[in-house]
Structure formats: structure tokens, C-alpha cells
Amino acid sequence: RDEFPDRIRQAYSLLSPCRLCPRRCGADRLRGQTGVCGASLLPKVASCNLHFGEEPPISGTRGSGTVFFSGCNLNCVFCQNFPISQLGVGRTMTCAELARKMIALERRGAHNINFVTPAPHVPQVIESVFLAREGGLTIPIVYNTNGYELPETIALLDGVVDIYLPDLKYTDARAAGEYSGREDYPAVALSAIEAM
């Protein structure tokens, strides 16, 4: 626990210029610029609620405490959450607000806190989990990702995330380029999954 403040600082340092994900877009998110993913400094959240539609071991009988982040570092033509991932539907909140939402989800019976599309928000995830743990959160943390991640970013989540739930979309670079705009996706995702 003592290392969390240092880990939080280290994670936030990746936002200026932004090199949090494989795009390394260079936006100065600490000064309010928006990255290619649509994310800025504060997390934008579309929904915090109990969700029963995840894999049965994640949803269980009482639901997964799902936090749907706005924005995404991919541009999948088939995205089922397009208004959230590409149009930025959601509201900005502080990490303290997000921590309170997580604690409330546990009180409602959630088996876990399930961060969906967390890659653009790793520093905020780490800070929010730290604050929530300080506030009494005890349930596991699920990192529900598209897999387009950097191993060094995943390393920052050691001791923060309990369960990784990567969605490996492609092993074919041509298909990844055509349908998600990133030909490097297969190599990047497989490396990230190995780190997870």
C-alpha cells in the first residue's frame, strides 16, 4: 500500500505527453488536451451499475459492478458501445467520486468492480482503487480491456488489478487494420496479454 502514491505519480507522468497506450499520441492530458482515445485528465464515465451480462464467473449471482469508461484507443467498426467509445457519451468525474461509486456498488452486492475500456484511464484507475480501498472497498478489481495495451502500463497495475479480462479481437494484422484501424494490434495485444 505504501507504494501506491508513487505508482499514482508514475502513472500520471505518462499523460504529459501521453504515452499510456501503443498509440503514444503525445497529447498533454495533464493540461486538458484530449488524446486520440477521447480521454483528457479526469475520467469520463458512461455508467456505474450492476451488470449481469458479463461472463458468468464475473457476473455471478449479484452482478458485476461495472464502470463503463468513455473513449477508446481503437476504432472498431463493429463496436457495440459506439456512443460511449467513439462519441464520448458520459460524464466527467473526479477519482474521489469514482471511488465512492465503487464502494456503493460493493454495498449493493457487486461481486467485483469491472472497469470496461480502462486503457485510456490507467492513472485514474490506480488512484480510484487506492481511494476506494482506503474507504473500505474489499472486492476484486476486473480489468476488462480490448487488449491494445503496453506491457509497461500493465506493470503499473500489479497489485491493483485482480482479474484481467482481455478481449483478443484479431490475430490477423490485415483484419485488425481494416476493422479497428490498427495493423499492429495482433503483436501488441499478444504482448500485453502475456504481461497480464
- pLDDT averaged residue by residue: 95
Number of strands: 6
What are the low-pLDDT stretches, counting only 5+ consecutive residues below 50?
A: none
Largest sheet: 6 strands, mixed
Describe the protein's architecture and organization.
Helix content is 35%, strand content 15%. The chain is globular and about 45 Å long. By secondary structure, the protein is an alpha/beta fold. Strand 5 (141-145), helix 6 (151-156) and strand 6 (163-166) form a beta-alpha-beta unit. Helix 1 runs antiparallel to helix 5 (122-134) and helix 4 crosses helix 5 (122-134). The protein has helices at 4-13, 56-59, 82-85, 95-107, 122-134, 151-156, 173-180, 185-195; strands at residues 44-51, 64-69, 91-92, 113-116, 141-145, 163-166. It has a six-stranded mixed beta sheet with strand order 3-1-2-4-5-6, with helices on one face.
